[in-house]
Design a protein that fits this description.
With 120 residues, the chain is α/β, with parallel strands linked by helices. The chain has helices spanning 28-34, 57-72, 84-92, 105-117; strands at 3-8, 14-23, 44-55, 76-80, 100-102. The protein has one domain (3-108): STAS domain (Transcription Regulator spoIIAA, 2-Layer Sandwich). The N and C termini lie far apart (38 Å).
Length: 120
Amino acid sequence: MALDISLDDSKQGALRVALNGSLDSETAPQLSAALGNIDDSVSAVVFDMKSLGFISSTGLRVIFTVLKAQKSRGGRVAVSNMSPGVKKVFEIVKALPDMTVFANDQEMDDYLASFQRGDD
């Protein structure tokens, strides 16, 4: 299955990455390339997984690479709208304690607004 990636950096300091399809060994390089040069002004990367149907260990590695890079410069990574199957994969590898998880778009938007206002 293919992967469609939509990047939205319209909110100051935040990059929203919407994923649609399957994040696996065939599509992970595509995501890695899309996120390869995240600007230093981006302090929060939010993965919207509403339309992500599958994630493999290779796909997880791309997300963990972004998490590691963001943490090294004081940034954050969050995920939202995970399906139960995708969420289970994150739980199995015990990744969720290192990330903020949002149940839906409204929670994520409220967080990003708060972050931009400096409430955090």
